[in-house]
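Continuing from the previous page of notes. For each protein in this section, the sequence appears first, followed by its structure tokens. Read the first protein now.
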Amino acid sequence: MKKNKVSILTKAENDFMELIWELEPINSTALVHECEKKFEWKKSTTYTVLKNLCRKEILKNENAMVTSTLSREEYYGACGREYVEEHFDGSLPLFLAAFCGNKVKLSEKDKEDIKKLIDEC
């Protein structure tokens, strides 16, 4: 995956990645069967999505074994950082102000967790 920008996934790709993260490493043949059961996909659909995610460098398919190039947490963390960078000029305070401005009520535990994260940064 490119270090400077993450690839945003479609809903189908995201669902596929969630399955991969749950089952990896997984043989591509077994993956076809899992996708048939879970998504009712044909073999060709599974391989098309797999090929696209390999091209985006999010997955690897080596010797018919499929693995991710980054964890779920790494992917979603990169997406979040990219979103804040693109839409809030990289300002986490601006993002939080917008988030809380929509009348989101944070619990005391949420506030404590955020304070702890800030202290650890």
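Done with the first. The second protein uses the same format. Note its length before scrolling.
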Amino acid sequence: MFITPDDGRRIVEELHASIGRDINIMDRSGIIIASSNPHRIGQPHATAQRLIREHLPVLEVTAAEAGDGMQEGVNLPIQVDGVCEGVIGITGPCSAVREFGKIAKKMTEILLLTRRQETQAAQRNQARRLFLEAWLFDREPDWQAFALRGSLLNLDIHQPHCLAVLMPGNGADWSELTRTRLLQHMEGLLRRRTDIVHAVVNGRLLLLFEGEAAGLAQPLLQSVLDACRQMGQILLAGLSSVVTRCEALPGCYAEAKMAAATATADCPIRVYSSTSLEFILRSIDATVQRDVVRAVLGALPKQEAEEAVAYLRLYFDCDGNIERAAERACVHKNTFRYHMSKIARATGCSIQQPSGLVMLYLILKFYENLRNTPQHSQAISSRKLVPFNFTSTLYHEMHPICFTE
């Protein structure tokens, strides 16, 4: 630890404005690094050098002793953990500046101690981030050595863990500056939580929850998202399942990424442990979904494709009950069967066959997923077929549907 010229300049400017006295700050070798008289910066300060050399608790220069480069005033060592980091001197009659000197000394020592603590915290956080990255991506770690390394960073790899991946809520990529600001904000939020590690890995913000924090991960994660929202950053997050084996953490990263990909503004935290079929389908790449829809429905005219989607939606909403679906569509059940047969002829997928039934369900879900993506207006076929608009006359979720035969 040492006093930087910037540290010294800030202290000198503040004290000089408050007490109106000339102030000098010297480094460990007694060289002036900051002064209310800029011309003295860089010059040796004989009184400070003597104080440092003789390990004096204070060195006052009276008016009678002044001269030969020495000025009347009080000089005090700046100490952090018993180590002299420099000297602060205030010019003026000793009786007038003695108390000011004590205050200036204490103020400078507190500044240095705080800066040292911040530096140590930053170094510790960086070490923990690197540790997390190694934990996720090292192929064959020496787990015994890894556990020892973790213990030095106050991390127990044998505790339960889970992982959260955070991403921007507007779907855009974060700039490096934004990620840095968010990381700094989280450092402030989580300063006292040694059981939570925050890091940027592969451009993603991660939070590792350990031990007791793993059991409270969802409310803790929600508090982080709420705090970030207050600074104008809307975040979405995916949370992995909790694991008890250190070897399983890389799998948590994959789970959290998958969960984050399905988070929405209405549901900003997706938990992988609540995985459902809908969750899995949403996790499939949009390009794959679009290709499947194009392959099955792309040859149909737009109106027929929309009609097919509407009938499929009714069929699956009614759990495959033809009579109930026909009633909701305001058509005879035979008419509904006719439309399902028409879909089978057009797509090659029949509800009478398990494989066809599964394919039709996938088509419906992919079609709806694409409608809800930012690229929903992109054509999914050579005929520029777009995802079905559920406010059309063919289908409306809030009212019974009447199809024209």
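What the second structure shows: The mean pLDDT is 82. The two ends are 84 Å apart (CA to CA). We return to this in next week's lecture.
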